[in-house]
Amino acid sequence: MSPPEQHARPRQGFTLGHVFGLLLVVAVVAIVAIPGFFSREAVTLDNAALLMVRELRSAQNRAAFLGTSVVVDFEEDGTGYAVRFAGGEPVRHPESRHRLVRHYDADGVFEGVTIGRVDFGGEPALTFDRYGLGHASGSVELRFGDGRRRVVYDAQTHELSVEGLARATVPPGS
Q1: CATH number for the domain formed by residue range(s) 41-163
Q2: pLDDT for 44-101, tens place per residue?
Q3: Considering only CA atoms, which of 98, 101, 61, 66 is closest in space to residue 83?
Q4: How far apart are CA 30 and CA 28, in angstroms?
């Protein structure tokens, strides 16, 4: 009697080559799609405005938490802003410990975004007192291409908002 015959069955499944090929396709699609998505004017401006609101709220909270005045200085050339204590020392993010500074010309995601008109009661800076309250209403205009967004601070309600968002959203902390 001879041993049972073994029939060769074709192997099923994916080879390592299939997996690498799929990863290559996904990588190429990502390389093409992601810059195209973020170069969309509306998305870029919305994200820049919402980030500014988040960072202004952080400055406002730091002033109240530490009981000291905090100033948000907007660069004259429109490239960004920096947050500092009234004495000049830079404010640092409470978790990351990085300075609260934004330079649109150096940030790849927001490259091309600029700050236009800044007016807080005739001042080109937003100051929060030791209670986290700004005493002058005003706004900052963000520009990218033909698009515009306005970040607004209301001294009556002490709220920050964004005018002109392309998508309906409520900024975190609203």
Answers
A1: 3.55.40.10
A2: 899 999 999 999 999 999 999 999 999 999 999 999 999 999 999 999 887 888 898 9
A3: 101
A4: 5
